[in-house]
What we know:
By secondary structure, the protein is an all-alpha fold.
Amino acid sequence: xENNSSFSRVLKHLYSIKGSFTFDIFQYLKLENxxxxxxxxxxxx
Length: 45
């Protein structure tokens, strides 16, 4: 619990400093995840 709260504090701190930058990273990771899922689907077929 203690670990989690300090982690979220750090996240909020980072987000307040570079909100749009952090958002860009999340968008990028989402796109990469979709690509990986497509590759995975192709491998499984």
